[in-house]
Design goal:
184 residues; alpha/beta; Alpha/beta knot; five-stranded parallel beta sheet; 8 helices; 34% helix; 19% strand; globular; cytoplasm; S-adenosyl-L-methionine; tRNA_m1G_MeTrfase_TrmD; EC 2.1.1.228; tRNA_MeTrfase_TRMD/TRM10
């Protein structure tokens, strides 16, 4: 499985790319996680990534141009078929069935918001689905993205044993043939 992550703080992801079950999956080539920072796509000397909302309102939003350019770079790296996910409070709440559905995709691009979120124009033009990990406030989308990566990676054949995947009554009933998706 390939996962692209758009984040202002990609270094936070070392917790899952270097350690534990997901770290072993990366090390063994079962999971590939790549990162893009919108700061790398800015055009000013301050590498500005936030601005006031276009229509007015409180707070700051992630700017359209650097975020959109980072998404396009991730889409180019992913090739065909990548699903773009924005981790947001108003998204569909992540549960085991949702994890199963997301795990059925071989390529995901995860957008980690910061500040008051991202400009709505990015959501309307670049995002396929919005997902939330719960009804509470976090400082950004990195922790939800790590939660999603950890949960979907357990469905990649060879990452964890079948007993782990089906423990506690959680199984992918709808997507029983996941191993066929990841066969070489």
């Amino acid at each position: 499985m390939w996962i692209g992550v758009i984040s202002l703080f990609p270094e936070m992801f070392r917790a899952i790319t270097d350690y534990g079950v997901t770290g072993r999956a990366v090390k063994n080539g079962l999971l590939s996680v790549e990162f893009w920072s919108p700061r790398d796509f800015t055009h000013d000397r301050h590498r500005t990534v936030d601005d006031r909302p276009y229509g007015g309102g409180p707070g700051m939003l992630m700017m359209v141009q650097p975020l959109r350019d980072a998404i396009h770079a991730a889409k180019t790296a992913a090739g065909e078929g990548a699903k773009v996910i924005y981790l947001s409070p108003q998204g569909r709440k992540l549960d085991q069935q949702g994890v199963c559905e997301l795990a059925a995709n071989q390529k995901l691009i995860l957008i980690c918001g910061r500040y008051e979120g991202v400009d709505e124009r990015v959501i309307q033009t670049e995002v396929d689905e919005e997902w939330s990990i719960g009804d509470y406030v976090l400082s950004g989308g990195e922790l939800p993205a790590m939660t999603l990566i950890d949960s979907v990676s357990r469905f990649i054949p060879g990452v964890s044993g079948a007993s782990v995947v089906s423990r506690g009554g959680f199984v992918c009933r709808r997507f029983v043939g996941l191993s066929a998706l990841y066969s070489p």
